[in-house]
């Protein structure tokens, strides 16, 4: 039986061997929720960057550019990191490629590229990710983006939710990280939005008046797509 493990922070990734496994990269607030939303809204592909300059350079090739630092849209970019940037109709996004850089999410993605398959997870596409994992039948590592190397609640709770969905087909009891995430998910499940109100990043976003984004990102199973890393981009 394949296993599901959870890496609480990109800083811990050197302790995990991703070879031959599926990495589910998760940054609930907000990078991976925004990437799911972008592709569902008709963006053709998303190219993630670690650095602002590399990302900005893609504008010359016709890309929309999206950048976040410390929760705010970086100056000189078309979009920030709000999923509503792809939904509000201010910029037409259908048929465009997006170059994106965020504080933690795009970094976690780059550090996960040693896996056999790298996909993007969010509460929005939880069941779609679970189905993808079942179809692959390989060990899964949930890579939590965290916050500047630290543990965060929302990405870990996602790991617990995915573990619950996969419990019949995967060993979800083999690591203390997965057990802990499942315990947190049990606490959170009856009122996910209410539970996550206590998380540090939710407080940070609320102070930036991005609480609409938070309410959006904690919805379950609204999208049935699984963004996957292929040839240097997410499609
Ligand atoms: O760190 C990240 O990658 C972002 O998702 C953080 S924020 O939600 O845009 O502040």
Explain what the structure shows:
With 235 residues, the chain is an alpha/beta fold. The longest helix is centred in the last third of the chain and has 14 residues, at 153-166. The protein has nine helices and ten strands. 34% of the residues lie in helices and 17% in strands. Strand 4 (64-69) and strand 5 form a beta hairpin. The chain has one domain (4-230): Alpha-Beta Complex (putative 2-phosphosulfolactate phosphatase). Residues 27, 29-31, 68, 71, 81, 102-105, 145 line the site of (2R)-3-sulfolactic acid (3SL).
In summary, what is this structure?
The chain has helices at residues 31-40, 52-57, 105-111, 126-136, 153-166, 176-188, 192-196, 200-207, 211-217, and strands at residues 4-7, 22-26, 45-49, 64-69, 72-73, 97-101, 117-121, 140-144, 229-230, 233-234. It is of the alpha/beta class and 235 residues long.
């Amino acid at each position: 039986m394949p296993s599901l493990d959870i890496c609480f922070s990109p800083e811990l990734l050197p302790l995990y061997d991703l070879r031959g496994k599926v990495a589910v990269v998760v940054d609930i607030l907000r990078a991976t929720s925004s990437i799911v939303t972008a592709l569902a809204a008709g963006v053709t592909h998303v190219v993630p960057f670690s650095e602002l300059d590399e990302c900005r350079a893609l504008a010359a090739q016709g890309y929309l550019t999206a950048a976040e630092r410390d929760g705010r849209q970086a100056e000189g970019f078309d979009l920030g990191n709000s999923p509503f940037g792809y939904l509000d109709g201010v910029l037409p996004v259908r048929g465009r490629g997006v170059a994106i850089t965020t504080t933690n999410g795009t970094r976690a993605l780059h550090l996960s590229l040693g896996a056999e398959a790298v996909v993007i997870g969010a509460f929005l596409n939880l069941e779609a990710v679970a189905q993808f994992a079942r179809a692959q039948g390989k060990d899964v590592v949930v890579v939590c983006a965290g916050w500047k190397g630290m543990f965060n609640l929302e990405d870990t709770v996602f790991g617990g939710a995915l573990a619950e969905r996969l419990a019949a087909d995967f060993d979800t009891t083999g690591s203390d990280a997965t057990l802990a995430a499942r315990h947190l998910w049990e606490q959170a499940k009856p009122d996910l939005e209410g539970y996550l109100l206590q998380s540090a990043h939710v407080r940070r976003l609320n102070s930036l008046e991005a609480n609409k984004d938070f309410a959006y990102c904690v919805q379950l199973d609204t999208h049935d797509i699984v963004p996957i890393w292929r040839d240097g981009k997410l499609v």
